[in-house]
Amino acid sequence: MSLLPWAVIAILTIINALYVAAEFAAVSVRHSQVRQLAQDGNSLAQRLWPVLQDSHSLDRYIAACQIGITLTSLGAGAYGQATIARDFSLLLQDNAGLTTLAAQSSAALITLVLITVIQVVFGELVPKSLALQFPTNMALYTYWPMRWSLVLYAGFIAFLNGSGLLLLKLLGMGNVGGHRHIHSPEEIEMLIAESRDGGLLEPDEQERLHHALVLSRRTARQLMVPRRMTKMLDVNTPFNEVLQTAIESPYTRLPIYRDSIDNVIGLMHTKDLAARYAQSGTGNRDSITSIEEVMRPITSVPSSVSADQLLKMLRERRSRLAVVMDEYGGVEGIVTLEDVLNELLGDIADEFKSGNPEPEQLPDGRVRVPGILRLDEVLKWAKAPLEHEEVDTIAGLVVTTLGHLPLPGEAITVSGVKIEVEHMDGQAVQSLIITPRPDDYQDDTTKERDENSRSAT
């Protein structure tokens, strides 16, 4: 049996592999990497970048790959049947004693299986894996062969792409975009997690990226400091008390209200107060008759506004603090730029302000958590997701489940997690004790499924 047919099959397989690698590399390569290489002077990247940017050009590029794959696969099969299968048929007739028809059928089947295995393994799987692992390099290395293929298959590409677009229009899908990388936030989170598992990201980097992705789903209500935990001043407060409050308070910005906390009218910055006090000469306190003289405008935002919209509003109004209003026009709390940054970077409280209370692991395995802890942050402590459509915090979950203001010692169990009220601050739940869900916990649905399975057996 001659080696020439096998050499031809090998060449066709290599060409097929080139087209497969080019296709997968073109659709998986990160555009930012190619753009950066192009800016750094890489000639191949400079030529490839316009193709990736233009959806029509990328469609033609992918079409050339697919035509090349089809032609080489068909060519390898047809050539193999015409040469290798013929030689196999003769061998089977001479050595196996088969009839001509039986030998030809067996040889055709053997040849088909062999060429298919070669094409799938070496012409499809191997180049696809390489292209997915090294998309940038593969996209650059296959550029020139693809460039020549675009010229060679120009007629085929025009006919096939035109036919495809016509069919899409007939199906009412004529505005379908080209090959672009579009990922949902959930898919991006999966990619980030895979990068962390692969050692490309540190755990804290992965955590920050996760927070950045979910920032748009956070609302001002979830980020704010509740009104009962804020410090505000009545506009009619005597100056001596204002000065004493400014000295004792860890905050540099204090909201000002008139008559009722729900009627916030402005913001006092302690720097303005100190500057005005210093300008009075020897510190004459009588030079300031009202807080309104050192009051700045304050930004008000609805409690439902998203964190990214909140950032935009604060930036546009050159403000670092906003009053969070509920749907009835009442004040729910105060949200600051630092609150948003805390969501992204963790607690960044300065030396004058104490940080927010954090969960504390107890020696017996239980966890002490603050009542204001958000439900989405409870997961890693409770070992179970705690969700509720109407409340955001674990204190809200307890109050809503009980249906009344709890007393210390009262407890509920949600999804196998025991939550016990530890301390109350007036009418607010200050801290709770969580007993994490046991590993062998089964909810009602799981129990019912297991019982049905046992009864069926």
Question: Which key terms come to mind for this protein?
Answer:
single chain, 457 residues, alpha+beta, CBS-domain, 4 domains, five-stranded antiparallel β-sheet, four-stranded mixed β-sheet, 19 helices, disordered C terminus
Contiguous runs where pLDDT drops below 50 for at least 5 residues: 448-457
Portion of residues within helices: 40-55%
Shape: elongated
How many domains? The number is: 4
Strand content: 5-15%
Number of helices: 19
Return Rg in Å. Answer: 35 Å
* Major β-sheet annotation: 5 strands, antiparallel
Q: Give me the side-by-side strand order of the main sheet.
A: 9-10-13-12-11
Compute the separation of the termini in Å: 60 Å
Quick one: how many beta strands? 13
Write a structural description.
With 457 residues, the chain is α+β, with helices and mostly antiparallel strands. The protein folds into four domains: 4-170, no CATH class; 185-216, no CATH class; 218-345, Roll (CBS-domain); 360-435, Uridine Diphospho-n-acetylenolpyruvylglucosamine Reductase, domain 3. Helix content is 54%, strand content 14%. The chain is built from 19 helices and 13 strands. It has helices spanning 4-28, 31-39, 43-53, 55-82, 84-95, 100-133, 135-141, 143-152, 154-170, 185-197, 203-214, 220-223, 239-248, 270-279, 307-316, 337-345, 379-382, 394-402, 444-456, and strands at residues 225-226, 233-234, 253-258, 260-269, 295-296, 299-302, 321-325, 331-336, 360-361, 367-370, 411-414, 417-425, 428-435. It has a five-stranded antiparallel sheet, with helices on one face. It has a four-stranded mixed sheet with strand order 1-8-7-6. It has a four-stranded mixed sheet with strand order 2-3-4-5. Helix 1 runs parallel beside helix 6, helix 2 crosses helix 3 (43-53) and helix 4 (55-82) packs across helix 8 (143-152). It starts with a helix and ends with a helix. Mean pLDDT is 82; it is low at 448-457.
